[in-house]
Automatic annotation (TrEMBL), chain A:
Organism annotation: Potamilus streckersoni
Domain UspA as annotated: residue spans: 8-149
Name of the protein in its database record: UspA domain-containing protein
Family annotation (InterPro entries): Rossmann-like_a/b/a_fold, Universal_stress_UspA, UspA
Pfam families: Usp
Automatic annotation (TrEMBL), chain B:
Family matches, as CDD domains: USP_At3g01520-like
Protein name listed in UniProt: UspA domain-containing protein
UniProt key word Coiled coil: yes
InterPro entries in the cross-refs: Rossmann-like_a/b/a_fold, Universal_stress_UspA, UspA
A Pfam match: Usp
Keywords: Coiled coil
Keyword Coiled coil part of the UniProt annotation: yes
Span of domain UspA: 12-153
Entry coiled-coil feature ranges: 66-100
Length: 157, 159
């Protein structure tokens, strides 16, 4: 009586070890064969925006942006490879915008069964127990959210 | 922790009798549960008659209080039976239904630690009457204090 109906699963990926952990945990403990996984990346042009060199030469900014774009492209390729390596059906998606909002929106568009997220991202500030984007997702999702807390995230940095 | 061949995944499900927690149980079974997983249900019934300040428990009449407590116990036994029925109808093998009194968030996390849980499952709200926030206080507590992944079972129709 196995139900092999397809589920779409949105996994929020940002390059942090937390999102990698979330993807691995989902795969080891929840993944079903017919799952259609959407690895969703919402790039933030952090390097350029926070750089003190913003007022400098236009070519410097262009170079920084190109570097950032290459970084993103490489990351998306890495995500694609990780899907292949695990034999998981699905795709890699990259959308600009406010990450929390984008993740919720894409989950709706893809008719996702649930969302998978880590508890933090790349940000270095550890003021709270839960990162702002994970927090946003939990409070705005109308579908179940799997919040993958890595036990090491309790250790102080 | 002893390394067994094919170590089981342990799931702790926080329930309080609300339809949110029932939805969480069902969703866990249909979407996450794998045969061989060990499932513990932490059940937190609400002593509504006693905690409700408007109730006549405030009279201080010992016989009356005793009767109210007994009625409450009967009500909770009925709820526990209903829960067992629900579990059976889902064909879910549950290792233990642990009944707790008070402080559900804290106790759910405590049980999860004791049983070496790999995941905690909660609804977004419970049976409580206060609807100040989008996410109930127990779910919120568990999400922030769990050392393991938490499955928060939001359901659009139940908001």
């Amino acid at each position: 009586m196995a139900e092999s109906s397809e589920r779409a699963v949105v996994i929020a990926m940002d390059g942090s070890e937390h999102s990698t952990f979330a993807f691995d945990w989902y795969f080891d403990n929840v993944h079903k064969e017919n799952d259609r996984v959407i690895l969703l990346h919402v790039p933030e042009y952090r390097t350029v925006v926070q750089s003190p060199m913003v007022m400098a030469d236009v070519s410097v900014i262009t170079d920084l942006m190109q570097e950032e774009e290459k970084r993103i492209k490489d990351y998306l390729e890495l995500l694609g490879n990780s899907l292949k390596a695990k034999g998981v059906g699905g795709k890699v998606k990259s959308c600009g915008g406010n990450p929390g909002e984008v993740i919720i929106r894409v989950a709706k568009e893809e008719n996702a069964a649930f969302i998978v997220t880590g508890t933090r991202g790349m940000g270095t500030i550890r003021r709270t127990l839960l990162g702002s984007i994970s927090d946003y997702i939990i409070h705005h999702s109308h579908i179940p959210v799997l919040v993958c807390r890595h036990k090491d995230s309790h250790k102080s940095h | 922790m002893a390394e067994m061949e094919g170590t089981q995944t342990v799931a702790v499900i926080g329930m309080d009798g609300s339809e949110h927690s029932e939805y969480a149980l069902k969703w866990y079974k249909e979407n996450v549960h794998r045969p061989g997983n060990k499932v513990y249900i932490v059940y937190s019934p609400e002593y509504s008659s006693i905690t409700n300040p408007a109730s006549s428990v405030m009279t201080g009449n010992a016989t009356h209080i005793l009767r109210v407590v007994q009625e409450e116990e009967q009500r909770i036994s009925a709820l526990l039976s209903k829960l067992k029925e629900k579990v059976d109808s889902l064909q879910l093998e549950v290792s233990e239904i642990i009944r707790i009194n008070g402080d559900p968030g804290h106790k759910i996390v405590k049980v999860a630690v004791e049983k070496h849980a790999d995941v905690i499952v909660v609804g977004t709200r419970g049976i409580g009457k206060i609807r100040r926030t989008f996410l109930g206080s127990v779910s919120d507590y568990v999400i922030h204090h769990s050392h393991v992944p938490v499955l928060v079972c939001s359901h659009k129709d139940l908001h």
